[in-house]
Amino acid sequence: MERAAVFDVDGTLVDTNHLHVTAWWEAFRQAGHRVPMHAVHRAVGLPSSDLVARLLGEDRDTGRDEELSAAHKALYGQCFDRLPAFADAGRLLKRLHRDGWTVVLATSAGGAELSALRRAIDADEAIAGTASADDVDEGKPAPEPVEHALELAGVPAERAVFVGDTVWDMRAGDRAGVRCVGVLCGGIPRADLEEAGAAAVYDDPAHLLASLPESPLA
Questions:
Q1: Can you name the residues that pair with 218 across neighbouring β-strands?
Q2: pTM
Q3: Tens of pLDDT along 137-193?
Q4: How many whole angstroms separate alpha carbon 83 and alpha carbon 96?
Q5: Which DSSP state fits 31?
């Protein structure tokens, strides 16, 4: 039977979370908001509109949400030519592909950003498809991104594993009915990932690759 390995990208395969934090912090600063970086970090992984709502509250001027999102996108876009993949991220995807897993990405990135991330990973031959925020009505922690990834793979939830680095990833995977694996390289504590639904937690893609025989991706 087919089986699917679904991967988040930012903070899971590519070391971008702190770049996102800095870009969002600067976007907020330019708009006159003082938002601590640690608070931004905890919100990274949410869709832009949900991230802004979480950090600025429901009584904000929602008419400026698009302006904030556009500022973040422009600032983060300056890094597209040098996004750093985590060690062995591409090797992990290629190994799973060789082992018979259908590898699908589930990410909020699209367009030029997604292209830059895929260049950084350098494993296109192993990636069967990508479920982006543009393909669903709700992003993580809603289950739709993971469910769409499963549709692309043609695999039921019980034959899939979802790997991510945030609480939002774990909640999305858990709600979609897939087994969740967390990685610590995005900066979220192990206890938080486990509480949100992670069945196993690894340091980073290299650690997961080295531990495959004993992992949920065995």
A1: none
A2: 0.96
A3: 899 999 999 999 999 999 999 999 999 999 999 999 999 999 999 999 999 999 999
A4: 23
A5: T
